[in-house]
Design brief:
The chain is mainly beta. It contains two helices and 20 strands. The chain has a five-stranded mixed sheet, with no helix packed on it. The chain has a four-stranded antiparallel sheet with strand order 1-20-19-18, with no helix packed on it. A four-stranded antiparallel sheet has the order 2-3-4-5, with no helix packed on it.
Amino acid sequence: MVKLIGLTLVGLVLALYKNHRASYQSRLNAYREVTPVELPNCNLVKGVETGAEDLEILPNGLAFLSTGLKYPGIKSFDPNKPGKILLMDLNEKDPEVSELEITGDTLDISSFNPHGISTFTDKDNAVYLLVVNHPDSLSTVEVFKFQEKERSLLHQKTITYELLPRYVYIAELLAHKIHVYEKLANWTLTPLKVLNFDTLVDNISVDPVTGDLWVGCHPNGMRIFFYDSENPPGSEVLRIQNILSEEPKVTVVYAENGTVLQGSTVASVYKGKLLIGTVFHRALYCDL
């Protein structure tokens, strides 16, 4: 009887493990293969070798890219160097990136580990960057003032809140969903809708001209966490038009199996150009 109970418990544990593993693999799209969708005149961005996990493009064509993210379970091609914020001028014919010097004595540069980026322009047209930072496995939000003439970032302070626009879009990565909320005058959020996808949706950029959402996605997320150079993670970019309508239009604008670009996280547009960033790999600049 004891042996029977023991075998039953072993069977239950194995069943639970199998179900949990199947659920985990499903959430990470472990076995999905990418159907290529190509764009004209795509070029890898010179100077981006350790990812461009998030990026923001200003209306004047200046783009900020975060690079060098180090996160538990995620591949890093240069784990011993701190992260950086790069600048790219999309008005140039063949734009390249340059590193922005960080000034001020209130930030430990050696542990700078930038993740997400948002920009804010005040009434005097001063540009501020809000950067999610993970120093020593912690999470903070750092505020920088962009010094355009000096091509540098002046660190202002560390904050624990974020400014919200009228509509708030939240990507639920492992659930393959984007949630849409409306911010009311009293700063409460009202849920409007949820969109489901067959890919892992990551960073969301909103086109300031059209209101379209551009989303960097992981078509096979398991390959991000279990990196294999012989079977690398693919890249995918979605464009979502009329997201507030009853039938938003979702288009796969770019898709690739990892031979060119590995692990896309973000995409943004400027004057018919698409800039795509990744967790730890390269950045790609394409015509639309």
